[in-house]
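Sequence in, structure out.
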Amino acid sequence: MQTKAHRLVWPIMAAALVVSWSSGFVGIRYASGNADVMLVLFWRTLISGLVLLPFALLVGPGIGARALIQQMTFGVATMFYLGGFALAIGQRVPTGLVALISDLVPLAIAALSQPVLGDRLTGRQWTGTAVGVAGVLIVSMDSLALGTAPAWAYALTVAAMMVFALATVVQKRMRTIDMPIHQSLSIQCLTAAVPFAACAGWNGTLVPPDDGRFGFGIAWLVLFSTFFCYGVYYMSLRLYTATQVSSVIYLSPPVTMLWAWLIFGETLSTMMFVGLAVALFGVWLTSSRGMTVSKDDVSKEGPGLGSAEQSVG
């Protein structure tokens, strides 16, 4: 049985998701000024996981071995998503191209929703998906270039995007998102911190720089881009379809540019606003027919701290 959600719930959650998703740009830019990106990702995931660990152990149901393994697996998927993009950029894949591919996650989720979840998209939703992709392309047009990176680095970028999309729909299918958010996020972050530590150690050191910008960037990434962002993301997945939730990521490129303008004084282009308008229309087409919430889904919401990433935000 389906019950109508209040008409303002989805717009509010969508706005919160796209603002927090794109906020990873701010934290990464501050924290990576004098630090390797892998070091930033290590401290981001480690601190996030450790802050949530006492709550994960003391608040909520017991965590069985099967649930622990499942969440650790999704933690590895998150690591691959973030680390894959960082490694691709390090191999000279142009940042604009990496950003474009990462923002095609909604398209991959839409394609995977029918075979994995059995969610058949309507013609309107496919049209909205296509319009959303067009909006992303318009925003990214000025920064696109092929570069001279090795072929495997380009393949890694696409693979990282596909892994995150697959992890999203599999979590929805397996209902692992029904675990309280603070528990699942703690496990995933601590799992991801291990390979990030190995990569950061390989690149140099695990010691954070004595830099106020690094500390501010990590705090921003932990509180806003991790706790808040993933909290909204997983809560949205409980209430709405994966295609509908992921569609708002099409708004991430123009909103990221707004962040850059507000905080770093970067210039805005006319094409950015055109792309934003096109992406908004695509999100509206994709979402406007899916505003239902299952009573079963609502009844299974676990207690959480309401939070959670990058972009890579």
